[in-house]
Amino acid sequence: MLRPIGIxxxxxxxxxxxxxxxxxxxxxxAEIVERTEKQAVVKHPNTAWRLVIHxxxxxxxxxxxxxxxxxxxxxxxxIPKAHExxxxxxxxxxxxxxxxxxxxxxxxSIYFKEPGGNDLEIEYYNPAxxxxxxxxxxxxxxxxxxxxxxxxxxxxxxxxxxxxxxCDNKETSDQxxxxxxxxxxxxxxxxxxxxxxxxxxxxxxxxxxxxxxxxLGVNSRFTLQLASAExxxxxxxxxxxxxxxxxxxxxxxxxxxxxxxxxxxxxxxxYWEITS
Length: 276
Ligand SMILES: [Fe+2]
Description:
- The chain is built from 5 helices and 17 strands.
- By secondary structure, it is α+β, with helices and mostly antiparallel strands.
- The protein has one domain: 2,3-Dihydroxybiphenyl 1,2-Dioxygenase, domain 1.
- It is globular.
- Bound molecules: fe (ii) ion.
- Fe (ii) ion is lined by residues 68, 70, 121, 162, 164, 206.
């Protein structure tokens, strides 16, 4: 079993960086922290999680709705404002559609389709849910981003809170995520599972069983950080011997360039990068 110290990155595929990066900077208050020709890294100032964005070109597939990332606002009144602002700027940002504000349990949210083929969510999450044991309701920021940093929209995304994955079967998926990847199951219900590593921050990944799946490519993956390069090499050796019966579908070669890492495809055929 891995002993990861963090889910440190999400990886995301779009069609064109020039079209998709303004979505993150202008509509989600994220910053571009790295940029090369075909790849960029964005990060929200209140979130340690980095999102690595790969330019997949014009033929990159649409990703399933349940592979979205989500940004949270501090006040429920900001959700209708976010809807209004994004609906008013659809043409400018080539946004295909934006849903009306929708309330479910403790969440109040909108979704929109960015031109790179991905759905993104902006949500308010009622902190009263903490009292009911919902760990995902804990504050995702200590210092709120002031309106001056993101003026004129009527809403301020305060953190990137979650990513989302599909699975085939909740029970086998939960077992794999907990006992092979070493992730903490911090919540969920009959249907969904929330995984996290609270040592690294409050962000989490929602895993949802989906009957007819669109499988994701390697550009849509999460990165797990282990404590040392040695641990990564040991894990790779271990999985080359025992990976198949554990449910690992693919194990890519160990890379020893800038950092020691390898990629695996899990029991749900989702990709993970294991790195130091
Ligand atoms: Fe979500």
